[in-house]
Amino acid sequence: MKTELVREQIDFYRENGFIKIEDFLDAGELENWRESVEEAVKERKGQKMPGKDVKTGEEDGINKEADYFKNVFDQLLNLWQTNDKVRKLMLDERIGKMAAELSGSDGIRIWHDQALIKRPWANPTSWHLDTPFWSFSDRRALSIWVALDDVTLENGCMFFIPGSYKETTFESPQIGKNVGEIFNQYTQFKNSRSAPAVMKAGSCTFHNGLTIHGAHANMTSGQRRAMTCAYMPDGNVYNGKPNILPDSYLRQIKVGDLLNNNEQNPLIYKSH
Ligand SMILES: O=C(O)CCC(=O)C(=O)O
User: What separation in Å is there between the alpha carbon of 43 and the centre of ligand 1?
Assistant: First the structure.
């Protein structure tokens, strides 16, 4: 794994709110990631996340209109909690260190992982922000997105609005069918030029959760598979949004409590 970051990469991320790392995984590692994710997804039998009954593609209270959204992607969360191979991949301290360096935090916890599989002819992923949906509010929060297939303009590559994370807030429209809805809220980016993240399988991007981003439709007969993980800088507190936290955990916490439970949000890196 290419986990060493140089100053220019960190500076690029801080300026733009995203960075692409070509050949993040070598061929053998890519094969391992593909096999591990495939096994973990199969084991789930469609269950979207541990501790909840929702199946991927069903209405989940966030995304209405299941008919449309089930054809955006198959979304399976927290595979690290149900599969040991994915657990090993996700809890890798080296990736945590990268996330810490990019975000400027001294510790990194997993918020949630997710496999995002665009099936053939899948709908686009509307432009959106991530952090406003999460149970903590930190402008440094970020995600890694690892390409398990070659990602092209044709099959649903991600796009970013460079620099947008510096101006967006924790206010965001729901992720609806209208691809460009967010630009009615953040009108200053209406004329921005978007940056596509075309990359080979095994490459990855990191993006800040407040960077405006989305993905093309899959206009091909093949899959576009990605394994992703969202990260919470250590030291964050509960903001009252349940998001993906299981009911049993929500019963134990109140707004303002530290989110430091290693069963739910493992600390994968600490700088000292
Ligand atoms: O893979 C996609 O289509 C969108 C991914 C995304 O929005 C994310 O990882 O934050």
Answer: 22
C-alpha span between 145 and 25 (Å, rounded): 12
Residue nearest to ligand 1 atom 2, measured at CA: 215
Q: Which residues pair with 145 in a beta bridge?
A: 205, 228
CA distance 142 to 16: 13
CA pair distance 59, 190, nearest whole angstrom: 30
Q: Is the pTM of this model over 0.85?
A: yes
In whole angstroms, give the CA distance from residue 183 to residue 47.
33
Q: Is 138 in the pocket of ligand 1 (CB under 6 A)?
A: no
213 close to ligand 1 (CB < 6 Angstrom): yes
Q: State the distance from the centre of ligand 1 to the C-alpha of 156, rounded, in angstroms.
A: 10
251-260: pLDDT as tens digits: 999 999 999 9
Phi and psi at 94, nearest 5°, equal -65, -35
Q: b/e per residue, 148-183, with b = 16+ CB within 10 A?
A: bbbbbeebbbbbbbbebbeebebebbebeeebebbb
Task: Give tens-digit pLDDT for 153-205.
Answer: 999 999 999 999 999 999 887 888 999 999 999 999 999 999 999 999 999 99
The values of phi and psi at residue 95, to 5°, are -70, -35
d(CA 162, CA 37): 30
- Residue whose CB lies within 8 A of the most ligand 1 atoms, among 69, 75, 144, 145, for a mutation test: 145
Cα 240–169–192 angle (5° rounding)? 145
CB 203 within 8 A of CB 33: no
Both tokens of residue 139?
A: 């402008």
